[in-house]
Design goal:
The chain folds into 2 domains: 345 residues, no CATH class; 125 residues, no CATH class. It is built from 23 helices and 5 strands. The chain has a 5-stranded mixed sheet with strand order 2-1-3-5-4. Helix 21 links the parallel strand 1 and strand 2. It is elongated, with a radius of gyration of 26 Å.
Length: 504
């Protein structure tokens, strides 16, 4: 009699092989992503090495650093160091100074490097999802280079835009995957870095409407409004509303569309385009390929909407500063990467080589190039103030040289870290002042209230040095201020063209 063994467990050999293959592919993908992150971080650090050797790239850095000093001293951001911007970036500066234990600007530029890498990685992941591994590497590389390929004062500085970009890109990435609430939160953080971050809501809304309809858009709206309202409650709804929206009338007004503004638009736009040809030359090809992509179920319409909204953000207010153009980089880098993923190997090699060449040239220029004029000579007067005052003494800098507050380690006497724009109403990038009727009377009322609360030990008048348009709004033009200075201060010396007054 034949004895049969009981049947054992059935083993699906084909299934096991499939699982093994999938596991190996995922492991390979993880290795590729780690390799990509390491390459992008190394490239970013290399191209931004001037961060460790240049004290100041532009006045925005020292403006933000002074705001951070006020925050670390326990001060109220808008009542003691106001700006026409949302509050996120000053707090990034303050947190960075606290972590590194220094107020040297290299510390926040390292934080800016991390923001660049985060932006490039998010765009690389999105490019891989849309067009494959080849597009991933292209998008990451082009993003890192494009964010430095302009004048060092724009491309190397730790400015508002560089900290806005990661969450802006995250908003689009999340919306494309249908995560409405998370996309709204990311868009809110981009807006809290700079108001123009809200422009990303256009592609976000389009993506969510297409994927989830009204429910997706509603989730994004809630996700966007909750952080904004929480911040408004934290700082005071009136303060947030005034300094980020209502008080910006003269700054974003379209009244002064002068020849200077038109010339600045032409020069800056052409200059930026020439420096960023690697992410621009494929645009015609990308536009023609829309129909082909539409047949595959994806026309990249969201990227074109993103590009349009970013271009409008650059143009708003008719001030065409180089760092404004950074907002164009993410959609352009993605469009270029998708187009190049279908191009010949030679086209990719030439594009990458040219991008690397321009990136290295602008990185080297960061050590010495000052296309918009040299930085003001703030060091000597700052050293004098630091040596002849205590840490509790306040200072008033009349003009637009916040470097003096930062370098002297002294807090401002008023909430206006620059006076030419806030009090004299001469805005950067404009050829003349806005009418006096456009200047909110509360501005001067708050100014004298601040002077009464914190009488400055020193007043630095930068108008005689004719630095950054300070001569357009000298103290002599404001009778009440002139009487205040004559009654309470005497001029003790002139340092590098700056008149220094000490309280009597």
């Amino acid at each position: 009699m034949e004895v049969r063994e009981p049947p054992g467990p059935t083993v699906d050999v084909q299934t096991n092989r499939s699982i093994t293959v999938v596991g190996r592919e995922r492991a390979a993908d993880r290795r590729d992503l780690w390799r990509l992150a390491a390459v992008l971080f190394a490239l970013t650090a290399f191209l931004r090495l001037p961060a460790f050797f240049v004290d100041v790239f532009n006045s925005d850095e020292t403006f933000l650093a002074t705001q951070a000093q006020v925050v670390r001293d326990g001060g109220d951001l808008y009542r003691e160091a106001a700006d026409r911007k949302p509050p996120l970036v000053p707090y990034i500066y303050a947190a960075t100074f606290a972590v590194t234990g220094t107020t040297a600007l290299w510390s926040v530029r390292v934080a800016a490097m991390l923001a660049v890498v985060a932006t490039a990685l998010l765009l690389a992941f999105e490019a891989r999802r849309r067009a494959g591994p080849r597009a991933m590497w292209i998008a990451g590389f082009l993003t890192v280079v494009a964010l430095v390929a302009f004048a060092p004062q724009d491309g190397q500085a730790a400015n508002f835009e560089i900290f806005m970009l990661p969450t802006m890109v995250a908003a689009v990435v999340l919306a494309r995957r249908g995560h409405g609430a998370a996309a709204g939160v990311a868009a809110a953080f981009a807006t809290l870095a700079k108001q123009t971050g809200a422009a990303v809501l256009l592609p976000v809304t389009f993506l969510l409407w297409r994927r989830r309809g009204r429910n997706g858009v509603a989730d994004a709206a809630v996700g966007f409004l909750v952080p904004i309202l929480l911040v408004a409650m934290l700082f005071g709804p009136r303060q947030i509303a005034y300094w980020t929206v209502l008080g910006n009338g003269s700054y974003v007004g379209l009244r002064t569309a002068s020849g200077l503004v038109i010339a600045m638009f032409v020069l800056m736009t052409l200059g930026w385009a020439a420096c960023n040809l690697p992410i621009l030359w494929t645009l015609p090809r990308s536009w023609r390929a829309r129909r082909e992509l539409a047949d595959d179920g994806d026309s990249n319409t969201d990227l074109w909407l993103w590009l349009v909204s970013s271009a409008l953000s650059v143009a708003i207010g008719l001030r065409f500063f180089g760092h404004y153009y950074m907002q164009l980089v993410p959609p352009l880098a993605l469009l270029a990467a998708i187009a190049l993923s279908r191009a010949s190997r030679r086209a990719v090699q030439v594009t990458i080589a040219f991008a690397l060449f321009t990136g290295v040239m602008f990185s080297a220029a960061g050590y010495f190039l000052k296309p918009f004029g040299p930085e003001p000579q703030y060091q000597s007067v700052s050293r004098y103030i630091e040596a002849h005052s205590s840490i509790d003494d306040r200072v008033l800098v009349w003009g637009n040289v916040p470097e003096i507050y930062w370098a002297s380690d002294r807090l401002p006497a008023t909430r206006y870290l620059t006076t030419t724009g806030f009090l004299g109403n001469y805005q950067p990038g404009r050829s003349d002042a806005a009418p006096a009727s456009e200047l909110d009377p509360k501005v001067w009322r708050w100014f004298y209230r601040d002077l009464e609360a914190h009488p400055p030990r020193y007043i630095v008048d930068t108008a005689p040095a004719q630095v950054r348009d300070a001569e357009r709004a000298p103290i002599a033009e404001f009778p009440r201020l002139r009487r205040y200075v004559r009654s309470h201060y005497h001029r003790i010396r002139t340092i590098d063209g700056f008149d220094l007054y000490e309280r009597t």
